[in-house]
């Protein structure tokens, strides 16, 4: 059988050396990571960097919530609050979400399609280091931003940097310039990685792996890569225009000189809303791999899942102005973007029903990855329902820039994306390190983080209905907002030990975890045909596949999938 060429059963790869073993020092490890072009190491470096920035952004979020615990709190000055608010949002989108999804893509796509590396290994390394130093540049603004005016520190214009807040008159010093250059550099790294993903997928698939046999994980990242290439140039363009405004007097966004401040919003959200799907589609990709394995059933409706993904990507390019219903667009414009926002819920709903169809009648195994995926389904459903509510223009007029919107997008980016990232880390941790994550620690992580998450963000729907605006650093007593802010802050405090359990689990399992073996989950895709961790070259022999589940064919020669495809 062709699938027998996946791996030579007599071939054994030595266990990876670990820090502390003879001849293996931290300096050796660091040197190896700095100069590596191995897609697996770069993938882990992306994920590790994203987790590091996540911790920093989480500390800022905690301080923001502490400030809002009491009315008229003076825990943070308004300027400091605005800087934390800006840095938290920027970091979570550009330094946590983006690198972590690219980390999974880098590590898994070559192994899933049966090749030995990305198409352009050096470009891959370039993309990582550009991203990493763009993040350092953003945080360096704390030290280098005062400039000639001795004004400011970190940027304080919001992660969306609306004009005219970014004009020299309102943002002195260089903090906004650090923000602009950081985003611009990060975009270059993202474009490089996206091009690499496309070339790798279309040119380096193993024998027999047609587009119709690719794992859905790979399909979704192909769509994400196209979205990045389409959506990022407008963001880069407006960063350049802003720099020209600030230093050469170009006046693109200066309304007093004939410019248009709303033009910035269009440029930013033409990127910004596809960015939501750039972030969430990889979460869907992870769920597509985990739910079938722990349901012991193939994914329900593979072709429909691919079609729904393409539909989501296409429609996402035409919904950006639902962020702008209150800026004074025409009725025709509001109507178009309201309808497109409602329509995009259709292919997304198809995906949810397909995941439910996969689980229906299956033999569910409630391992850590599956538990996080089940929470993701519930939380993303809430996010989707509130998103459709906000697509109704009169409803949006009432709640725009309120905490209802804050709750909505945190249910998307935390309740959906972050939960699938946790699921993916627990699922592929045995493959990356050869050790099983600790289940008890993982359950503590799940329950503490989930209880804290809902306690933090669900009350914000209510405070939004009660009229609490976003982005304010304090508020007056007697408005009915106190209890909801206090519940939100308590929720954040509950999430903190959950994250500590997660970090401790990663470290503890690396050194003390149970040995995993090559395929601990009894999975079906090619990455589980290699050793754990995989060798640098992934496969001794080039794999050959005949179905969407090559390992099923190998394990069940009497009942292979290829007979029915």
UniProtKB/TrEMBL annotation:
Keywords: Cell membrane, Copper, Electron transport, Heme, Iron, Membrane, Metal-binding, Respiratory chain, Translocase, Transmembrane, Transmembrane helix, Transport. It holds the Pfam family COX1. It catalyses: 4 Fe(II)-[cytochrome c] + O2 + 8 H(+)(in) = 4 Fe(III)-[cytochrome c] + 2 H2O + 4 H(+)(out). Its EC number is 7.1.1.9. It is an enzyme of class 7 (translocase). GO terms for cellular component: plasma membrane. The chain crosses the membrane at residues 50-70, 90-113, 125-145, 178-204, 216-242, 262-287, 299-323, 335-356, 368-389, 409-429, 441-463, 483-508. It is found in: Cell membrane. InterPro entries: Cyt_c_oxase-like_su1_dom, Cyt_c_oxase-like_su1_sf, Cyt_C_Oxase_1, Cyt_c_Oxase_su1_BS, Cyt_c_oxidase_su1_bac. It is a multi-pass membrane protein. GO terms for molecular function: cytochrome-c oxidase activity; heme binding; metal ion binding. The keyword Phosphoprotein does not apply. Residues 26-546 form the Cytochrome oxidase subunit I profile domain. GO terms for biological process: electron transport coupled proton transport; oxidative phosphorylation; respiratory electron transport chain. The keyword Membrane applies. Cytochrome c oxidase is the component of the respiratory chain that catalyzes the reduction of oxygen to water. Subunits 1-3 form the functional core of the enzyme complex. CO I is the catalytic subunit of the enzyme. Electrons originating in cytochrome c are transferred via the copper A center of subunit 2 and heme A of subunit 1 to the bimetallic center formed by heme A3 and copper B. Belongs to the heme-copper respiratory oxidase family. This is Cytochrome c oxidase subunit 1.
């Amino acid at each position: 059988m062709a699938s027998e060429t996946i791996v030579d059963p007599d071939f054994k790869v030595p266990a990876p050396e670990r820090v502390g073993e003879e001849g293996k020092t931290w300096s050796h490890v660091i040197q190896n990571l700095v100069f590596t072009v191995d897609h697996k190491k770069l993938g882990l470096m992306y994920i590790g960097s994203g987790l590091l920035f996540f911790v920093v952004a989480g500390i800022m979020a905690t301080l923001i919530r502490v400030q809002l615990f009491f009315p008229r709190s003076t825990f943070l000055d308004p300027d400091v609050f605005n800087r934390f608010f800006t840095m938290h949002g920027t970091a979570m989108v550009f330094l946590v979400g983006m690198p972590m999804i690219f980390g999974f893509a880098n590590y898994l796509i070559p192994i899933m399609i049966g090749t030995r590396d990305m198409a352009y290994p050096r470009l891959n390394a370039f993309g990582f280091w550009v991203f990493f130093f763009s993040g350092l540049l953003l945080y360096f603004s704390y030290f280098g931003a005062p400039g000639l005016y001795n004004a400011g520190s970190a940027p304080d214009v919001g992660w969306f940097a609306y004009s005219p807040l970014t004009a020299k008159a309102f943002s002195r010093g260089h903090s906004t310039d650090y923000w602009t250059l950081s985003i611009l550099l990060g975009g270059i790294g993202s474009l490089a990685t996206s091009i690499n993903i496309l070339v790798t997928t279309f040119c380096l698939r193993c024998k027999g792996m047609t587009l119709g046999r690719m794992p859905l994980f790979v399909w979704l990242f192909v769509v994400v890569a196209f979205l990045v290439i389409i959506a990022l140039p407008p963001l880069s363009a407006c960063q350049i225009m802003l720099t020209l405004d600030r230093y050469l007097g170009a006046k693109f966004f200066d309304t007093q000189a004939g410019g248009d401040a709303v033009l910035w919003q269009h440029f930013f959200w033409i990127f910004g809303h596809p960015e939501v799907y750039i972030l969430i589609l990889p979460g869907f990709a992870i769920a597509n791999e985990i739910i079938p394995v722990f349901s012991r059933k193939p994914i329900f409706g593979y072709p429909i899942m691919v079609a729904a993904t393409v539909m989501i990507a296409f429609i996402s390019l035409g919904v950006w102005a639902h962020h702008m219903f209150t800026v004074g667009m025409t009725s025709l414009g509001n109507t178009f973007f309201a309808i497109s926002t409602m329509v995009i819920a259709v292919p997304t709903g198809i995906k949810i029903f397909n995941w439910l169809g996969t689980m229906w009648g299956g033999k569910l195994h409630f391992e850590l990855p599956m538990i996080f995926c089940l929470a993701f389904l519930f939380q993303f459903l809430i996010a989707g329902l509130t998103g459709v509510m906000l697509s109704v223009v009169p409803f949006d007029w009432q709640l725009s820039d309120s905490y209802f919107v804050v709750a909505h997008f945190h249910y998307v980016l935390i309740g959906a994306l972050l939960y699938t990232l946790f699921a993916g880390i627990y699922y592929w941790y045995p493959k990356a390190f050869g050790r099983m994550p600790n289940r008890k620690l993982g359950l503590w992580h799940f329950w503490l983080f989930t209880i804290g998450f809902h306690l933090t963000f669900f009350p914000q729907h209510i405070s939004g209905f009660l009229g609490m605006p976003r982005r304010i650093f304090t508020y007056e007593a007697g408005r009915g907002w106190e209890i909801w802010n206090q519940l939100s802050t308590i929720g954040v405090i509950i999430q903190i030990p959950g994250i500590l359990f997660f970090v401790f689990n990663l470290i503890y399992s690396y050194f003390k975890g149970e040995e995993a073996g090559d395929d601990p989950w009894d999975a079906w895709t090619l990455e589980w045909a290699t050793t754990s961790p995989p060798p640098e070259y992934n496969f001794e022999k080039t794999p050959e596949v005949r179905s969407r589940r090559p390992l099923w064919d190998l394990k069940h020669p009497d009942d292979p999938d290829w007979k029915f495809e």
